[in-house]
Amino acid sequence: MNRSRSLINGIIWKIKTEQRKGHPAVIKTKNISEQAYLHIRDTLLNSDVYVGQKILHNELGHKLGISHTPLREAMFRLTAEGLLEHENYKGFSVSAVTLDEAREIYETREVIEPPMAEKAAGAMTPEKSAAFSKILDHYQRLLAEPYSRRRLLIDKKLHMEIAKLSGNKILAQTLNLICDKLIFKSVFEKISPERGQEIVAEHSEILGALGKKDGKKAAKLMKSHLLEQKHYMLKSIKEKHSDNVLKPLAR
User: Fold this and answer.
1) Which CATH number fits the domain 2-93, given the four candidates 3.40.50.280, 3.60.130.10, 1.10.10.10, 2.60.40.730?
2) Which portions of the chain are predicted below pLDDT 50?
3) What confidence tens digit (pLDDT) does each residue in 172-199 have?
4) Distance (Å, rounded) from C-alpha 41 to C-alpha 44?
5) pTM of the model
6) How many CB atoms lie within 10 A of CB 18?
7) What is the percent of the chain where pLDDT is above 90?
8) Domain-by-domain residue ranges, the chain?
9) Contact 63, 12 (CB under 8 A)
């Protein structure tokens, strides 16, 4: 319950920060449900909300000054996207990514990301290469800290910058949506430090190929990286499921 209220307070703080910057408040916008959706989605994505956490949407609506209808529209939109789960009489909560969801997400990424990496290679510049290196350095620095969603977001940033460099806006938007779903519903503690170092090495190889404008190699390395990630993620989900099944038997 305390973490749910902390989440709400984080949303309030974010909105007040936007107001101080001169941005309009949620309650003063023409499309209240759209703004509620954007604020809540962004804050959930950038906080360490955990799987199973209940979202106190009524309290949230009261603090934001948003009426019941637009707030529920925003929450059900997040549910439709697969980011939240809704149960009658229980409300909204964060659901864990399923084995099928994770498999489908990575299968989609395996289709769209290698061609984007190949195309991005042709648009690489020294400035872009330096920017990519800074993102990778940031990720590597985070390996020394306790695992958090920040590392997932930095990982996403690297992949999204490659996607944007490809020039295909539709595929980049698709990647953004499915990455957000995977980030939001992932279980943090199942990512090992060893895998983190492997990710750095794999990203470094991809960036090296991009820097040399070797599109074919960049695409091949991207495909290999995604296959490794899929294998690791699916294995983690299976282990998590096994733990949950065995716990009741271990009394």
Assistant:
1) 1.10.10.10
2) 24-27, 29, 245-251
3) 999 999 999 888 887 655 578 899 999 9
4) 5
5) 0.80
6) 14
7) 45
8) 2-93, 99-243
9) yes
